[in-house]
Write a structure and sequence with these properties.
Layout lengths: L9 H13 L4 E9 L1 H10 L5 H15 L5 E4 L5 E4 L4 E10 L2 E10 L6 H13 L6 H10 L3 H13 L1 H8 L2 E4 L17 E8 L4 E9 L5 H25 L15
Parallel strand pairs: 4-6, 6-7
Antiparallel strand pairs: 1-8, 2-3, 4-5, 7-8
Length: about 260
């Protein structure tokens, strides 16, 4: 059967490079149902609440602020070592349509635990809809992806193996989900060290959360405890911020004493 040759678009070329750079990372996965009952109540009361992506980005960053292991990378150059970051850097997978093709581009969110939820939500929302050239990190991706293959491979090698470069290019954790399209458990890979995915809200008010991590950095028992803490943060810190951001009810008019 005779087919036709199609060019590889820049977003698709980026994913190919990303998968090539991720193949050597020894990922392990843990999945757990997280009770988000109090968070759901806060979102329903708020009316216009921030999206789930922003919620999980900030919640994981809060846990990582308490646990430096969740801000730690494995780097190989100049010798194998761990590289601990002072703050979290999130990479959020943004689904877009470019030239009629569905694609994914990561948006970088710096220190999410130090930002209001509304600000994180606005950044993610803008990354979904603004032109590529208006998003600084997207422009950076396109610029690098236009380079010839040997230069891209060399650049990705440096980005993966030098701690500071890894942090700047790939962050300390990623967040991705296909929950907008219905139930389904997503297990993915990346340059590391942590990737969090989440599903839809179940009738019992739980959400399935999957954490994939670089096994060189930590073990399953630590991740299990981190997911317990994540559940607490979602229902306490995040729910409280959403409640606090709810617009106050308008005061009732005061009647005149002579009216």
């Amino acid at each position: 059967m005779r087919g036709r040759v199609r060019n590889i678009s820049l977003p698709r070329r980026f994913i190919i490079d990303l998968m090539h750079a991720s193949m050597g990372v020894p990922f392990v996965t843990l999945s757990r149902s997280v009770d988000v009952r109090h968070l759901i109540e806060a979102r329903m009361a708020a009316g216009r609440a921030p999206g789930w992506a922003a919620i999980f980005v900030k919640a994981f960053a809060i846990v990582a602020k308490e646990e430096p292991v969740l801000r730690t990378l494995y780097a190989k150059w100049p010798r194998p070592h761990f590289y601990e970051l002072p703050r979290s850097i999130a990479m959020v997978a943004i689904g877009r349509v470019e030239d009629g093709e569905d694609c994914i581009l990561p948006e970088r969110v710096l220190a999410p635990d130090e930002q209001p939820l509304a600000q994180i939500h606005a950044q993610i929302h803008r990354a979904k809809r603004a032109p590529v050239e208006d998003i600084p990190f997207f422009r950076r991706i396109y610029k690098a992806t236009r380079l010839p293959l040997p230069l891209r491979r060399f650049g990705w090698w440096i980005g993966r193996n030098v701690g500071r470069w890894h942090a700047n290019n790939f962050g300390s954790f990623g967040v991705t989900s296909v929950a907008a399209y219905g139930p389904g458990e997503l297990r993915t890979i990346g340059p590391g060290p942590y990737i969090l995915t989440y599903g839809v809200v179940a009738p019992d008010q739980t959400v399935d959360v999957v954490v994939c991590w670089d096994h060189r950095i930590t073990d399953a028992a630590f991740i299990a405890k981190a997911l317990i803490r994540l559940e607490q943060v979602l229902n306490a810190d995040i729910a409280a911020e959403i409640r606090a951001s709810r617009p106050a009810a308008e005061p009732r008019p005061v009647r005149s004493a002579t009216g």
